[in-house]
Design a protein that fits this description.
CATH topology of the largest domain in chain A: Dipeptide-binding Protein, domain 3
Radius of gyration of chain B: 24 Å
Strand content of chain B: under 5%
Structural class of chain B: mainly alpha
Distance between the termini of chain A: 13 Å
Helix content of chain B: over 70%
Largest interface: A-B, 84 and 69 residues
CATH superfamily of the largest domain in chain A: Dipeptide-binding Protein, Domain 3
Strand content of chain A: 15-25%
Number of helices of chain A: 16
Order of helices and strands of chain B: HHHHHHHHHHHHH
Shape of chain A: globular
Oligomer: heterodimer
Number of strands of chain A: 22
Helix content of chain A: 25-40%
Largest sheet of chain A: 7 strands, mixed
Structural class of chain A: alpha+beta
Number of helices of chain B: 13
């Protein structure tokens, strides 16, 4: 195969720099360091904010990265449109309300050449269940059995309508249990035996993963021979990696850098349709948030378009309601807080007893000002400051505090010493699981201690629904109830921006970053 | 000399013990629960979360459910044996992970020190030749600019120029020798001004000393006077600064390694701080203290060797 990447324009100067560098460190001890690589190769280079911690799918912060570069595969996958599709499976079918059958392709092999049969799939999923917290929770109460060589049966004592969606999860990658062994085996390149089109060739944790074309791949042979995944944690450096043309795909470009990428002749900017929903979580156990009218007023007071334009350079989606950022729920964009309405907000606050005295900018009730704090973390400061300004227009005095680190928010929340904080969570996946986490009385993300009888009944309604469309409609009912009760205020999706070289062909943006960024039809032109 | 060395060594050991204690207390005084961080902060997918029992089990596994004194004595005992604990995130021994990243940081740090020493001593010597002259003014201006420029900004400008503009170097990848130039230059340049100014002042001061006048009156060659009677005593304060720079190198590496994606200890620390990976942060603090203490000890001993008055005082 001929080279797909042109040689760098100034190899002479590169060699000079390399020579100077080599001389500078010649007297030092660098036996372990790799020397210069070839400047010409048919490789795809990806720069990302983080690379895997390990090569074992049971190791936290690993499987998604391996799947994203075509090393690992699951039984099923989600298409960019949000539909469940087969991956290494040939078909999947409902076998009654409490069971599913998944048929395997007869030609699928691990990278070592070992055929993938139902027995191997069962062993792989059972190993994940045993060694991974998330794997165990995903497969909780589900029995997995082999039916002959090519069919796997999933059954439970309850309805499991969401099983296909569960099987698309990044934690459930099919791997060769014999090769990995009984314990977490994250750092042995030789043991990393998956089914993907690329096989791990070298691994330096949190630095680099190199994967090479798998000659025994069961599917179509990929056009790229080699993938290099480099960790570039600094966002500015990632932008430079895109602008220099050094990396073909650069993940997570900042909104500030997006203009430069858009102007660049060498890269295209992709706005990935994230299903995440950034929201303002309200401490509804405290005044004034224990009054639903105040919560609704604050939700109406937000100008989400301004937040998206200022915080994300217009490259995110507003969330008028909780599911409004998810492509699977287009109806949710017409529900909830579809625009800023300060008049309605004022009326609601008046009704709640928070009145605005003449000449005053802050509403009061019984002499007490409408005053609260707003905590941000990560890159959320611009959004928090905008919200502060927008709520000021409604007569609220907001103190903004936060830190790029999660620790401050975490400690305030642990102590119960908070009013509002901003955080984003995904809305994709099985709606029952996703929604319950936030609004079920015992949900692990129900920081607000929200406990609503109507909501509880709506969540319970999932138990009898096995049809996907029925469950989707049920999720929309919950979304409506959420908009009415406002335990947290949806704001917008969190924009995910990728810079992709104009030399890259066949790039398909996906709302789940780890779903097949690299696939057989992706190639790099010279 | 032996007594002097033993005294210095005892002080170094006391400082190390204090550092072990301080690093433990500081880290444990920080807010937040690492287990919550490991299972939270937007990670772990949207479909499932960890249960309370799973969190408690992990807390127990990591020893976080034990009392502070228990954790402290366990930490000191393990540290004395070279065991810095296990990273919360990677689940690997911290010492192993630090060992893997050490060569990258040491090569960067030593190259930066070479840049600092060469530029600092060279420009300092140049400036001292004609105090108040054109060269002195130019070097002063250079020192002023370098001391005012943040390493982060300088690093990005260098990257922009050489990686994007000229395409001479790579932004990403393993620690290739061609990639060490820019981070070493960034780190070396921002540390150069103090050495430059101190060496300049020291040289000017030595030139007017009586022993130099005596040496000249005795008819010694100018080269001998310069190197033996002026430069040798003048270099002592600069050496002290270079020794202290070891700590600056490790501190500066945190930012510089992150900008240049240089996979050394500094970047490892920054990632670990953001992830609340306590054992790594503790291990790094200890390593930094150890390095600075050893650096200072070597400088002290070198001083004692170069200046006999220190040994006897």
């Amino acid at each position: 195969m001929t080279s797909l990447i042109a040689p760098r324009p100034t190899p002479g100067r590169r060699d000079l720099m390399r020579a100077i560098g080599t001389a500078a460190i010649a007297s030092q001890f660098l036996p372990s360091m790799a020397l210069a690589q070839s400047a010409i190769s048919d490789e795809l280079r990806i720069a990302t904010e983080e690379t895997p911690y390990g090569l074992d799918p049971v190791h936290e912060y690993s499987a998604g990265y391996l799947r994203s570069i075509g090393v690992a595969e699951g039984l099923l996958r989600l298409t960019p449109q949000g539909e469940v599709d087969v991956d290494i499976a040939a078909w999947f079918a409902n076998a009654g309300p409490n069971a599913w059958r998944v048929g395997l392709r007869p030609d699928v092999r691990f990278q070592s050449g070992k055929p993938v049969t139902a027995k191997e799939v069962v062993a792989s999923l059972e190993r994940t269940r045993a060694l991974s917290t998330y794997g165990a929770n995903l497969l909780k109460g589900i029995s997995i059995d082999a039916e002959g060589d090519l069919v796997v049966r999933f059954s439970a004592n309850r309805a499991i309508p969401a099983l296909p969606q569960i099987l698309t999860d990044e934690w459930l990658m099919i791997h060769n249990v014999e090769a990995f062994g009984a314990k977490d085996n994250s750092f042995d390149v030789g043991a990393a035996d998956y089914t993907g089109a690329f096989k791990v060739a070298s691994f330096n944790p949190r630095v680099q993963v190199v994967a090479e074309r798998n000659p025994k791949y069961w599917g179509r042979t990929p056009r790229i021979a080699r993938i290099v995944l480099n960790e570039v944690s600094d966002p500015d450096a990632r932008s430079l990696a895109a602008l220099s043309g050094e990396a073909h795909i650069v993940r997570s470009i900042t909104a500030e850098s997006s203009t430069r990428i858009q102007r660049s002749r060498t890269s295209r900017l992709y706005t990935i349709p994230s299903t995440d929903c950034a929201a303002a979580y309200l401490n509804i156990a405290k005044e004034p948030f224990n009054d639903v009218r105040v919560r609704q007023a604050l939700a109406w007071s937000l100008d989400r378009d301004e937040i998206v334009n200022v915080s994300y350079n217009g490259l995110a989606r507003t969330a008028p309601s909780w599911l409004g950022t998810n492509v699977a729920y287009p109806e949710a964009r017409r529900v909830g807080y579809t625009r800023q309405d300060l008049t309605r907000a004022a009326r609601l606050l008046d009704e709640a007893g928070w009145s605005l005295a003449s000449g005053s900018k802050v509403r009061t009730r019984n002499g007490k000002p409408l005053k609260f704090s707003l905590v941000w973390w990560g890159g959320g400061k611009p959004t928090a400051e905008l919200m502060q300004a927008q709520w000021a227009k409604a007569g609220a005095q907001v103190e903004v505090l936060g830190s790029p680190d999660y620790g401050l928010l975490d400690s305030l929340r642990s102590a119960g010493d908070w009013d509002i904080f901003v955080e984003g969570w995904g809305t994709d996946g099985d709606p029952e699981s996703v929604l319950s986490r936030h609004v079920a009385a015992d949900g692990d993300l129900n920081y607000m201690k929200f406990n609503d009888a109507v909501m509880t009944d709506l969540l319970k309604g999932f138990e009898t629904l096995t049809d996907a469309e029925d469950r989707r409609v049920q999720a929309l009912h919950i979304n409506q109830r959420h908009a009415d009760t406002v335990p947290f205020i949806p704001i917008s999706s969190r924009a995910r921006l990728n810079a992709v070289s104009t030399k890259v062909h066949g790039y398909v943006p996906h709302f789940q970053w780890w779903q097949y960024e690299v696939h057989s039809d992706l190639w790099v032109s010279s | 000399m032996l007594r002097y060395a033993i005294t210095r060594l005892a002080i170094a050991l006391a400082v190390l013990l204090a550092a072990v204690t301080a690093s433990f207390l500081l880290i444990h005084a920080a807010p937040s629960d690492p287990v919550a961080i490991m299972f939270g902060a937007g990670r772990g997918g949207s479909q499932v979360g960890a249960t309370g029992a799973q969190r408690d089990a992990l807390r127990h596994e990591l020893g976080l459910d034990r009392s502070w004194p228990e954790q402290y004595f366990s930490w000191v005992a393990r540290t004395a044996q070279g065991d810095l604990g296990t990273s919360f995130r990677s689940r690997r021994p911290v010492a192993t992970e630090m060992g893997n990243r050490m060569p990258a940081t040491l090569s960067l740090g030593l190259t930066a020190l070479v840049v600092q020493a060469t530029l600092g001593l060279g420009l300092g010597a140049l400036a001292s030749r004609h105090p108040g002259g054109f060269v002195d003014h130019v070097t002063s201006a250079i020192a002023m600019i370098l001391v005012s420029v943040p390493a982060y900004w300088l690093g990005l400008i260098l990257l922009w120029t050489f990686a994007v503009g000229l395409n001479w170097v790579d932004v990403t990848g393993p620690p290739d020798p061609s990639r060490i130039i820019l981070p070493a230059l960034t780190l070396g340049l921002v540390m150069t001004p103090p050495v430059m100014r101190v060496f300049r002042t020291s040289l000017i001061e030595q030139q007017s000393r009586a022993h130099v006048t005596v040496a000249r009156s005795k008819g010694l060659a100018e080269g001998v006077i310069l190197f033996r009677h002026i430069a040798r005593p003048a270099i002592l304060p600069a050496i002290t600064l270079l020794g202290i720079s070891l700590g600056e190198v490790l501190g500066g590496a945190v930012i510089v390694e992150s900008i240049f994606s240089w996979p050394g200890l500094g970047k490892y620390l920054l990632d670990s701080i953001l992830a609340r990976d306590y054992p790594v942060v503790q291990g790094y603090m200890l390593f930094t203290t150890f390095t600075v203490v050893i650096g200072t000890l070597v400088v002290d001993l070198l001083h004692g060797f170069l200046d006999p008055r220190l040994r006897t005082s």
